[in-house]
Design a protein that fits this description.
Blueprint: E1 13-14, E2 17-18, H1 20-33, H2 37-50, H3 55-72, H4 78-93, H5 98-110, H6 114-127, H7 132-143, H8 153-167, H9 172-184, H10 188-201, H11 206-218, H12 222-235, H13 240-274, H14 285-308, H15 314-323, H16 325-353, H17 358-388
Antiparallel strand pairs: 1-2
Helix pairs in contact: 1-2, 1-3, 2-3, 3-4, 3-5, 4-5, 5-6, 5-7, 6-7, 7-8, 7-9, 8-9, 9-10, 10-11, 11-12, 11-13, 12-13, 13-14, 13-16, 13-17, 14-16, 16-17
């Protein structure tokens, strides 16, 4: 969560014309909204050259530098350390303003210093006890303290987030904090309710939509998770985490289908084996009739799984298949298994409707399908396990 600047007039009039420094600050804010930190830094450099005592410019510079490291998609780098220097300048210039202290808390957390982050957030709360955002920052900082030595840190964080909601019940950011911290605590019902409230207040919130999809995926609802991830990507194509979520959701659906088809195939093999009399390779009529519904159910499951993939996600599947060797192998094996199950169904039908000898073909088809599903299932499970890590 990136904190916005304090509210107030955005431009000032100097001698009947707009103040150039204020206009540059406006350009910097607009660039940050568009996630263009380099453009923001250029505007802020011009302000700080003329007015190095501008606390707001130093704060915005810290935000721009944080965005630079966010674009790098890795651990805190040089830009984050530079952000700490910028926000320290802002704190020194305006020690009684809460915003520099709140930003310091955010930067310290990115630098892996949760204790110092909590102290800075508490100072921001002391300076602005009736504002919600300092408490949101304190909640996130406290949540980072969770561990063997601080078992209550998570509950304290949740309490601070609820205080923020009480102060600003119509601000989606406060509900998002409640949802995020409840999710880290494993409180899925509270987390889900808070994410939905954040989306009700701000339907364009890609963060809430993405995190709710993550919650759905970890709860086993791959279909709903895929819808959420694809909606987040559609709203913000730069959101790489949601693209990864789409892939994880597809793998989860594939794994679930593979496991169900394996169980059905195994059940069919057991029924055929137990209803085949000694001295004959042909199952009894009762056994053949019993397995037909199971084989039909396998086809229905495969069809329904494809139907569970939202229309908005299907264009991504072609890209995933082109670049993902594992998905190519697993999905091909599942398709082969479904075809073999269809062959087995035809074989069983011929033994029911005629005096044909389709039982052997059905049995070999079932065995081959089962082996293909085992390989596909192992590949899918390994991939989903890696993505969870």
């Amino acid at each position: 969560m990136i904190a916005p600047p304090p509210s107030g007039p955005s431009t000032h009039q100097v001698g009947g014309s707009a103040d150039p420094a204020a206009l540059a600050l406006e350009r910097a804010r607009a660039a940050l909204e568009r996630s263009q930190p380099q453009e923001a830094l250029r505007a802020l450099d011009s302000v700080l050259r003329d007015d190095p005592g501008s606390s707001e410019a130093w704060c915005l510079r810290a935000l721009a530098l944080l965005q630079v490291d966010e674009d790098a998609d890795g651990p805190a780098g040089e830009a984050t350390h530079q952000a700490m220097g910028a926000v320290s300048q802002a704190v020194a210039l305006r020690p009684q303003d809460e915003w520099p202290h709140r930003l310091a808390s955010l930067v310290l957390l990115r630098l892996g210093q949760p204790q110092e982050s909590v102290r800075a957030a508490r100072r921001a709360v002391e300076l602005a006890p009736q504002q919600a955002w300092p408490r949101v920052r304190l909640a996130y900082s406290n949540s980072a303290l969770r561990g063997p030595g601080r078992p209550q840190a998570g509950r304290e964080a949740y309490h601070h987030a609820l205080e923020a909601v009480a102060l600003a019940p119509l601000d989606p950011v406060t509900h998002l904090a409640v949802a995020d911290i409840a999710r880290t605590l494993g409180w899925k019902p509270q987390s889900r309710a808070a994410y939905r409230q954040a989306l009700a207040l701000d339907p364009a919130s890609t963060t809430a939509r993405h995190n709710l999809a993550v919650l759905d995926l970890t709860s086993g609802n791959a279909e709903r998770a895929l819808s959420g991830f694809s909606a987040a990507v559609a709203a913000n194509p730069r959101l790489d985490a949601s693209r990864v979520g789409v892939e994880a959701g597809v793998w989860r659906l594939l794994l679930t289908l593979t496991q169900r088809l394996m169980l059905l195939t195994l059940a069919v093999l057991v029924v055929l084996a137990t209803t085949t009399g000694s001295g004959t390779s042909r199952p009894s009529l009762t056994g053949r009739l019993a397995v037909l519904p199971l084989l039909v159910l396998a086809g229905v499951l495969a069809w329904r799984t494809w139907g569970d993939v939202p229309l908005s996600v299907r264009p991504y599947l072609r890209t995933m298949l082109r670049r993902g060797r594992g998905l190519q192998v697993s999905s091909t094996l599942v398709v082969i298994a479904v075809v073999l199950l269809a062959v087995a169904t035809i074989g069983v039908l011929t033994t029911v409707l005629t005096t044909g000898t389709g039982a052997a073909a059905a049995a070999w088809g079932l065995i081959a399908a089962f082996l293909a599903l085992i390989v596909a299932g192992v590949a899918a499970r390994r991939t989903t396990s890696r993505r969870r890590r």
